[in-house]
């Protein structure tokens, strides 16, 4: 039936070759009948007579697509770029994918998704959505590789058992993050919501980053560490994009621990906050945190700060950083563990680590490391002049401990005042407890 | 290499967040790329100010000025450095330059007013503050300076009005609350003062002026301290120099009166008693402070407001007073009434007198103290304790040490009149 009409149309055209609508009708019929080379001929002929005819151009491109002449199709679509109907757009994207111009394809695809959010096309999705699963595609892999390098994505082997002391912190993290992940049904039965982040605070050098990394190791997840500079550049550069990029990277790599070090830098000083323009970084962060547009399932968000008082109060609302944990300097037992592990492969002579640890009140992990470095420097000098390796002794460490002041004291001097004067919601009770201040 | 603009922007954000160390790292990189970048130099100066390294900071600001001599803000920053270093004259000169370059910055007038207040040029202060407020009626520095100046000029109603305006402007400003606190304290209203200092500390717990204000307000609960504080406000409002001119003038007056009229004339006796009363007042004022601090130890807030040094100074001075009194009492009880003599009281008296050097000492005790007077105080305490010990072992030998102690003690306290 169709063939007949094609035939008669063909004949009719012999008599009136300049009848453009007729020729177009013929060409489209041919296209329907999958007579691609013939259809292409007719479309070209139409264009010769009516230059720039959109219908003819669309038809021609479609013919090229079906003939697998992708680059030719791309050239035609390119001319029509801004007037493409959705079905033509889909073909265009497919051509681009075949031509390996993935970035352009992705941009166009986003345009479609804006117009009709529910749109799905398996062939395209295979390439453009879930790029992490399409391991075959180089471009996307490279981009992700770049991102994960930019933000130091890693898979830590560290476990909780590798972290000395900090029992309280470990318990809290387990309760909040690890157990829900392992027994989701149990939490559901009690109607306890899973999610939300943890904010770790305390003096510098006491292992906040370390415990965050160990959390990732404990649940066998990836770990992304966002440092001060990454946060700062949100202020400086195009913050929304960067922040979104970071959260997307984490979501794609779930299960993943997303760790924000020095998170207070996201909010600026109070005086700045009054300028509402400065709030956009915070708002963007909160939106990502809440998972407004996307699901944060499998992404565990941890944050650390030395200055919890500078952290925007909005961060502490339920569902965000609703658990706030004080990471205090290590106690004597933990200090002993730290000493032992740091001295493990150094030349030593029967060191009484217990005695040394007891002398190092208020020392943070980082302080202990600095102290050992100091002792080693002394020993090196001695060894150099004597010509033999001199082992580190208890006395050396005690001496170094006397000359060095713990860096946590400065932090506590400031934190103490916050706990005394600005402890409205009992936020800093832990600091008061540590300093043995009764209010 | 990172773009210098990014480095500077990072540094600026870090500085605003109070991360001075991190900001300095960024600025060092920026200055490495362009050592003549005046903006970087000025930011560096501000970071160092925040770390209380004023001299270094001013060095950077001066460099910035040498590159761009027409930037008013740099002169303002320089003035700030001098202000912190108590070089008020130079600070004022720098501010004048800043104002000449840009007469429309209210903050410049605000700082200028604050400096005038320190120099007790209250009318000038008020004028400057008002000029600043003409430019920006909501400028917090100018409002605070105006309130303080009015308060000191005894225009209480206007002062209260200004303070209310400042608080309405921004109820969450720690500096305003501190100013209001000090103004109340000066009016002798220690309860209201304490309230505002607490409020300031709630907003900014590490604000030193609010901390010391709260301490004064709490101590003012005991009346002798309150009077003392009023006296010190009075004398500081009379001008910077009165503090050391007054004792000297009194001393000269005593000498002149005695020389002219002779020791026995009634006027001479009257002048000498005034001098003695004044000396007693000043000397007792030194002891009242540790006693007031001592009472703070039993106060819920006060306990933590004291520094370690103040705490130990208070405890040791009060112990010296108490033990000294007890020993004098024991000396009186155990000596038979017929033979009671002055010497029985000497050990107690010496211990009692030790309260003076103890209240001026830094704790923990160190021989490497930077303050000369602190060192003398330490020597006095050791000498005093030693001579008390000698009194029980070898009375004859003790007298030698007692004389030295006495001379040193008088010298120490006499110079003390000019120290504060």
Commentary on this structure:
- The complex is a heterodimer of chains A (439) and B (420).
- Chain A is α/β, with parallel strands linked by helices.
- Chain A folds into three domains: 126 residues, Alpha Horseshoe (Serine Threonine Protein Phosphatase 5, Tetratricopeptide repeat); 174 residues, P-loop containing nucleotide triphosphate hydrolases (Rossmann fold, 3-Layer(aba) Sandwich); 74 residues, Orthogonal Bundle (Helicase, Ruva Protein, domain 3).
- Helices cover 58% and strands 6% of the residues of chain A.
- A six-stranded mixed β-sheet of chain A has the order 1-3-4-5-2-6.
- The longest helix of chain A is centred in the last third of the chain and has 22 residues.
- About 3% of the residues of chain A have low confidence.
- Chain B is mostly helical and 420 residues long.
- The longest helix of chain B has 31 residues.
- Chain B is elongated, with a radius of gyration of 27 Å.
- Chain B starts with a helix and ends with a helix.
- Chains A and B meet through helix 13, helix 15 and helix 21 of A and helix 1 and helix 12 of B.
């Amino acid at each position: 039936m169709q063939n007949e009409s094609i035939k008669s149309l063909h004949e009719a055209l012999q008599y009136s070759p300049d009848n453009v609508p007729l020729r177009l009708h013929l060409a489209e019929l041919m296209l329907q009948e999958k007579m691609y080379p013939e259809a292409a001929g007719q479309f070209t002929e139409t264009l010769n007579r009516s230059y720039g005819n959109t219908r003819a151009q669309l038809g021609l491109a479609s013919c090229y697509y079906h003939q697998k002449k992708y680059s030719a199709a791309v050239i035609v679509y390119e001319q029509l770029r801004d007037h493409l109907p959705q079905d033509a757009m889909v073909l265009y994207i497919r051509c681009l994918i075949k031509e390996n111009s993935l970035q352009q394809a992705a941009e166009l695809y986003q345009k479609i998704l804006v117009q009709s959010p529910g749109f799905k096309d398996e062939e395209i999705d295979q390439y453009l959505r879930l790029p992490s699963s399409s391991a075959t595609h180089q471009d996307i892999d490279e981009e992700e590789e770049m991102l994960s390098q930019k933000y130091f994505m890693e898979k830590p082997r560290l476990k909780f058992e590798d972290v000395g002391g900090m029992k309280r912190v470990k318990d809290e993290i387990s309760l909040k993050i690890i157990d829900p992940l392992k027994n989701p049904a149990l939490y559901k039965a009690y109607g306890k919501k899973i999610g939300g982040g943890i904010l770790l605070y305390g003096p510098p050098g006491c292992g906040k980053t370390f415990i965050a990394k160990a959390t990732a190791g404990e649940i066998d997840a990836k770990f992304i560490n966002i440092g001060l500079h990454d946060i700062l550049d949100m202020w400086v550069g195009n913050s929304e994009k960067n922040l979104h990029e970071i959260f997307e990277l984490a979501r794609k790599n779930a299960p993943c621990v997303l760790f924000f070090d020095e998170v207070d830098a996201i909010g600026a000083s109070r005086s700045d906050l009054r300028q509402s323009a400065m709030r956009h970084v915070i708002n963007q962060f909160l939106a990502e945190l809440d998972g407004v547009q996307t699901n944060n399932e499998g992404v565990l968000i941890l944050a650390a700060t030395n200055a919890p008082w500078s952290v925007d109060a909005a961060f502490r609302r339920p569902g965000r950083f609703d658990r706030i944990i004080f990471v205090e300097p290590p106690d004597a037992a933990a200090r002993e563990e730290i000493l032992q592990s740091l001295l493990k492969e150094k030349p030593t002579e029967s060191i009484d680590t217990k005695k040394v640890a007891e002398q190092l009140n208020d020392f943070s992990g980082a302080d202990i490391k600095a102290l050992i470095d100091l002792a080693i420097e002394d020993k090196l000098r001695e060894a150099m002049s004597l010509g033999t390796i001199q082992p580190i002794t208890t006395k050396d460490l005690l001496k170094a401990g006397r000359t060095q002041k713990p860096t946590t004291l400065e932090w506590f001097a400031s934190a103490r005042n916050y706990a005394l004067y600005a402890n409205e919601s009992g936020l800093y009770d832990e600091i008061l407890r540590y300093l043995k201040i009764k209010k | 290499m990172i773009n210098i603009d990014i480095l500077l922007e990072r540094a600026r954000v870090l500085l605003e967040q109070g991360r001075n160390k991190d900001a300095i790292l960024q600025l060092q990189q920026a200055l490495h790329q362009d050592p003549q970048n005046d903006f970087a130099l000025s930011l560096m100066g501000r970071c160092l100010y925040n770390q209380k390294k004023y001299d270094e900071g001013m060095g950077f600001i001066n460099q910035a000025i040498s590159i761009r001599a027409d930037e008013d803000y740099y002169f303002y920053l320089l003035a700030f450095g001098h202000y912190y270093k108590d070089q008020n004259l130079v600070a004022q000169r720098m501010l004048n330059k800043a104002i000449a370059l840009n007469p429309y910055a209210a903050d410049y007038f605000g700082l200028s007013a604050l400096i005038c207040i320190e120099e007790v040029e209250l009318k000038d202060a008020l004028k400057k503050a008002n000029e600043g407020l003409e430019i920006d009626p909501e400028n917090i520095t100018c409002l605070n300076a105006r309130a303080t100046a009015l308060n000191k000029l005894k225009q209480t109603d206007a002062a209260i009005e200004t303070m209310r305006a400042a608080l309405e402007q921004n109820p969450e400003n720690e500096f305003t609350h501190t100013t209001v606190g000090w103004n109340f304290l000066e009016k002798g209203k220690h309860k209201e003062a304490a309230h505002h200092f607490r409020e300031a500390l709630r907003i900014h717990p590490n604000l030193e002026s609010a901390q010391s204000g709260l301490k004064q307000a709490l101590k003012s609960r005991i009346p002798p301290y309150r009077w003392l504080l009023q006296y010190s406000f009075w004398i500081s409002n009379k001008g910077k120099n009165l503090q050391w001119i007054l004792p000297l003038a009194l001393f000269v007056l005593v000498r002149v009166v005695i020389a002219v009229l002779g020791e026995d004339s009634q006027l001479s006796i009257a002048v000498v008693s005034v001098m003695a009363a004044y000396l007693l007042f000043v000397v007792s004022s030194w002891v009242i402070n540790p006693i007031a601090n001592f009472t703070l130890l039993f106060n819920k807030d006060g306990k933590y407001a004291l520094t370690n040094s103040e705490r130990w100074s208070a405890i040791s001075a009060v112990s010296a007073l108490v033990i000294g009194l007890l020993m004098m009492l024991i000396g009186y009880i155990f000596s038979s009434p017929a033979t009671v003599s002055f010497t029985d009281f000497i050990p107690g008296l010496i211990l009692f007198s030790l309260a003076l050097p103890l209240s001026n000492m830094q704790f923990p005790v160190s021989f490497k103290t930077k303050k000369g007077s602190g060192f003398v105080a330490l020597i006095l305490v050791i000498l005093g304790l030693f001579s008390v010990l000698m009194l029980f072992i070898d009375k004859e030998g003790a007298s030698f040490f007692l004389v030295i102690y006495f001379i040193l003690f008088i010298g120490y306290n006499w110079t003390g009149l000019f120290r504060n």
